[in-house]
Predict the structure.
Amino acid sequence: MDTTRRGFLVAAGAAGHEASGATGHGQGHDHDHDHDHDHQVVPSDLTLRVKALESLLVDKGLVDRAALDALIDTYEHKVGPRNGARVVARAWVDADYKKRLLADATSAIAEFGFSGRQGEHMVAVENTPQVHNLVVCTLCSCYPWPVLGLPPIWYKSAPYRSRAVIDPRGVLREFGVDVPEEVEVRVWDSTAELRYLVLPERPAASEKLSEAELAVLVTRDAMVGVAKVTLPQQGSRP
Amino acid sequence: MNGVHDMGGMQGMGPIQYEKNEPVFHAPWEGRTLALNLAMVAWRKWNIDASRHQIELIPAADYLWMSYYEKWYARLVELLAKTGLVTRTELESGKVAPSSPKATPALTADGVPRMLANGTLASREIAEGPRFQLGQQVRARNIHPAGHTRLPRYARGKLGTIDRHQGAFVFPDTNAHFLGEKPQHVYSVRFAARELWGEQASPRDAVYIDMWDDYLEPA
């Protein structure tokens, strides 16, 4: 089986050029150039190749374009870290909810209507003055989609995946989080179908904030464990 | 397999590159690629373990070089061909073979919310209770399967403690190769950072790894 990059790109790429009537490159060069992709170079003609594959699958009756649109719309607009932030804020203001969340995160999160794909089996881990939790997937890119949406590039990248387990404190320092020596760092490697959500520490002097105001402060990074939640005036990660 | 995907503990991968205000997709083709992968899952021709393994089969140099969704694209093309949903000739020509009957999509737009909200449960009810008790010391087996496994290399042969019973789950090592679900208990196992990495690690820190029964032996 030819799974080399060149092999499959030649195979599916031939289809791309043929099906889309492209006579050369140049199309699809309008993306990606302002980003640094972790030393990875994306061939510009992936635009054409994916388009060709989609056309082929639609022509064969295997996929429905409207379903693709609905899937993309879901992860671009409906599911993201705002979901997780609501869960965290609720846990901060409601001790019973927090107890349920730590005992059975899947059910507690489902109380908000967040469930399903890549969040079927949820575990919440609590940061305290004694313990700091950090989530990684060293083997691929496992991430709790229903509460955090799709993972950012850094989470899926080799630098994070390789180092989070061997040098979590160094990784955290890179994110601007200095964990004192006396605090235990727990790294959760998502090797099975359990998906982890970090329950960050509630920021000091936030007693007057409502649940909704607290939710605004909770970031994706804090729920992965690479940031702390801070009040706006304390400044946040640059 | 001892592939480059199993990168926990490797060094020299460079600094973490953080993108502020990162968009969900960096180009439309990334979203289309994600959606094509999810839509084709509805045909149930493969499972999540087979799907993960297909990405692991990308040769190491390519794996490190390719972007995330480029790997997803590669994975989909191979799975389509392997399962016969699409022939290699069709993939190469971009044209439907004249003999190919027109199918009806397994996933339609109105089915998307339900498909995502339900997800796919990997847990299973099994008769046997867990082999290991909470607090029990265990050793991760020193095995090197050539196929798919979720036992990371950095933990093999290391001593840990059973921290939590996660329930019984489909076993990826067989399921990825369509050799059956072989459901068994999964445990969250606590490994002291010093057990894994020696004196350079903090004496307080630990890595928790979810491990299937077959990955463990009594210590």
